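TA notes. Do not distribute before section.
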Amino acid sequence: MGPGTPEEQYQIHPLDMKIFLSLCLFVALLGLACSARLRREEKKKFTTQYDNVDLDVILKNPRLLNGYLDCLVRDGNCTPDGKELKESLADALANDCDKCSEKQKAGSDKVIKHLIAHQPEDWKDVEKKYDSEEEKYTTRYDGVNLDEILSNERLLKGYVDCLLADKDDSCTPDGKELKAIIPDAMTNKCAKCNDKQKEGAKKVINYLRENKPEDWKKMQTKFDPQELYSKDLESELKKI
């Protein structure tokens, strides 16, 4: 039997058409699902609309800074960027700024350190309003062997260099986490620490004071320049 007419050769079987249409529908649905997922992921991040606000100008100008604090803490009038910050601040504090861009993380770190060092009462007001009292620091690194670090000059120097540096480039993951929580732990006397973390903090502070006094002084200068919290923290840890 011959191959048939050209029309017969190129005629599409109904079953083939159904398979083809099913594939098209599957691809279309897959595309919609991917698009929806991307939109959801984008929504998980805070807006970057105000990332170009000059924080240094605000921090150096008491009138501007107090205006933002009035907005955030005292229910005063808010600028558009202040309103956005107010709406996202509780989430950022509760979730370690995981929805922040890298620029937002660096900016929040700068502002927090400035308030702790220069306007500690205002920082306490911010914490009281936005930071959950039940929040605790991560226990992810509680298994780190502190005795091994303290007895190893190279390891200890690495952590000290990380904590004293302005950037986190030289930090291990646990060193970076420690560096991020020290300012907060200083102000609340390690209230968010579990017992193991308090014991570890006491051990490290005592070791540095006795064996590395210059490094301990540098840390106090960096994290508590006005010496407002160090003594209270040490007194609290002595109770353990």
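Switch to the second chain here.
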Amino acid sequence: MEQERNNLQISEEMLTNLVTTNQQIPENAVRDLLIALITLKYTQSNSVCFALDGQTIGIGAGQQSRIHCTRLAAGKADNWWLRQHPLVSQMDFRAGISRAEINNAIDGWLNEDYTNAEEKQWRMNFNVVPDRLTQKEKQLWLQGLQGVSFASDAFLPFRDNIDRAARSGVQYLVQTGNSLRDDQVIGAANEYGMAMAYSEVRLFHH
């Protein structure tokens, strides 16, 4: 099998068919939705993308199930937001460690299932080992993740994608549309006050 080159031009026209009660997509969200769509154009299907402030913050790609894509992307978006926590800037790293080691150490700070060996190695990155956030502290901080844009390279078959996306601050969506359960998906988006557009274009990349 051979797939032809995708020469589709991503444009704001793909965001004009709004199907939700909320018909307002601000300029910053338009930018983020376009960034998400461009990302999906070059991402292995099935895929979804979360974007915020002009950057991609979570991609779920190459999955057989759309909800698995959404869970992956949402988890990465959550992790990105947790890394913005003020405690990160206060971490006292050991002198001489590389940027990559610092990046991994911050990731380890958010990890709750390290083995004893991994935990020992992680602690060696610091002069003063930081306390990890509790689940309650994480949930409180994640409430600040808002205004996220979500794009899907094909239609959303069930409302579960909307429910999971809402937990990670998604307020603006673009998807292909025209699934058997469009009414349920639109209804879910309306429950959360989201604005959702149908691009009517599949961005499959195999």
